[in-house]
UniProtKB/TrEMBL annotation:
Top-level lineage group: Eukaryota
Organism of provenance: Strigamia maritima
Cellular component aspect of the GO annotation: plasma membrane
The organism's taxonomic lineage, starting at the top: Eukaryota, Metazoa, Ecdysozoa, Arthropoda, Myriapoda
Membrane-spanning segments: 218-239
Region (Disordered), start-end ranges: 244-272
Xref: CDD domains: Ig
Keyword Transmembrane recorded: yes
Signal peptide boundaries: 1-19
Any Pfam family: I-set
Name this protein carries in UniProt: Ig-like domain-containing protein
Listed InterPro entries: Cell_Adh-Cytoskel_Orgn, Ig-like_dom, Ig-like_dom_sf, Ig-like_fold, Ig_I-set, Ig_sub, Ig_sub2
Amino acid sequence: MISKTKWTMLFMLLTVCCAEVDLKLSTNAEKFENGILITLRKQFHLTCNLTSTEGDKIGVEWLLNSQLVIADKRIHIYHGNNTLLVTNAQEFDCGVYTCRANASGVDLNETVLVQSKPFVHPSFKAVSSMNKIEGEKMRINCTAEGLPKPQIHWLKDGVNVADLNDTRYTLDGNQTALVLNVVDLEQGDQANYTCVATSSTGVVTETIYIYVKDKLAALWPFLGIVVEVTILCVIIFIYEKRRAKQEEEESDTEQNPETKNMNEKENVRQRK
């Protein structure tokens, strides 16, 4: 005959065995292979519902790569519904998350792998084009984040820069931070330049158009101003000259009769 104590222990074991762990993924995180895929700089959340056969809620704790997750300004843990919310996700927020609980002395856990799409940081993020002058140097850089680690390469009008047969083009850096250098810029360097970050989770690109202007291009606005000022001065000079001549003629016409008669008499005397 089974004693009361044994019945109690058996009931507790059945409760643990029948407990279920339900890990619900966030709506903004898509399923990917054996885990989920997030977008860096955005938020995602994980919810772990662990309920015993009696319907009692059991608290859980969260681990990332076997390290306990601590709440901070970006990371929020809601014990009421066992939800982990990560805002402004960073590369180091990726990894294996574990929802762990202890029910009647037995550890229960559920894990999920969180990976991210590539995320790029080009030096030209805020602009779509850039002006350069012939003979100048050009230096544009691009860095990438993500799990798995993405690889970067540069394209010029769709052609891999590494395949260009031009010694003026050089690349510095590594697979996640690559700088494109071009010296002695020419008109032929005017093109679309694209930073491409690639990993098993996707491909992300950022493009900028480089305009290469003639060396004298900077002088044209100044020369235009000089021409405009010169034309304006000529117009003013001609206008003032004509106005002065017109005033002189009007002055002669408006002389009083006495002065005119005296001038005529003087002219007559001189003739005699």
